[in-house]
Write a structure and sequence with these properties.
277 residues; alpha/beta; six-stranded parallel beta sheet; two-stranded parallel sheet; 11 helices; 14% strand; globular; binds NADP nicotinamide-adenine-dinucleotide phosphate
Amino acid sequence: MTKTKGPVLIIGGAGKTGRRVDALLRQRGIATRPVSRSTTPAFDWNRPKDWAAALEGVSQAYVTYHPDITVEGAVEAIAELGRLARQKGLERVVLLSGRGEPAAERAEQALQASGVPWTIVRASWFNQNFSEGYLVDGVLAGEIALPAGAVPEPFVDADDIAEVAVAALTEERHANRLYELTGPRALTFAEAVAEIGAELGRPIRYVQMTADDFVISMRAYAPEDIVQLLRELFTVVLDGRNTRVMHGVEEALGRPARDFSEFVRKSAVAGTWSTSP
Ligand SMILES: NC(=O)c1ccc[n+]([C@@H]2O[C@H](COP(=O)([O-])OP(=O)(O)OC[C@H]3O[C@@H](n4cnc5c(N)ncnc54)[C@H](OP(=O)(O)O)[C@@H]3O)[C@@H](O)[C@H]2O)c1
């Protein structure tokens, strides 16, 4: 499967993992079709009637659901996408999923049931939430306040997720495999924030809020469905069920996962958290 017939479709092509998958495939000379609401052809999860055009002529797909694989409607959407991919004869659909979430598992099962050859990449919280996601503003402001306490999370690097996805898109041996991806070390949000502060040489405070205060504070920045999604992720999913380190990166790539410290060093050197004008 190393020589792909058509381009590789990347749904969420400019996203945290999609753009990395896109870059790695292009480096290998493999044609890609990164799509989202703002591309031509466009791909909008809310407009299924347009999906066929995006899938036309592609031989594999990397799929990231937006805003989150656990939201209402995701299972039906993944089932429909799988059906269409099967109909169009795709050789592989690689789905990005989340750990410890029953709704995410239902979406995974919907893809598996579609009959299209699949690989599932089930990831823990991304390191890049601190550098490209919703926590970057807190790092820059010197304070991150979340309803997360002493439960450690084995944050995973989006570069590792992308490398596993690319392996799954280009190598036959990953067909119908589920990889559970975590980093090599579980750390609490307070510990993660402290590591970033130590690398930058400036204090970043971690404040543990109540879930209710978090909801009130988030309502100024995000729509209600996203606020409730984040509440659920911090209060229900972050209960210890995902603390265990898993070895999906090593299983898929034959090398250990990148450590959080490597992410922190790299981001600091790149100036990601620079506060100077
Ligand atoms: N962050 C984590 O820690 C974590 C952990 C485990 C699993 N996950 C899963 O990762 C997935 C997200 O992957 P990601 O972080 O790589 O992507 P991402 O960065 O969230 O993707 C952002 C892209 O999605 C596109 N987009 C927004 N709304 C869309 C829509 N309605 N239809 C199509 N595209 C849309 C946007 O482009 P346009 O504006 O151009 O449309 C944007 O470029 C989610 O399903 C989540 O459940 C995340």
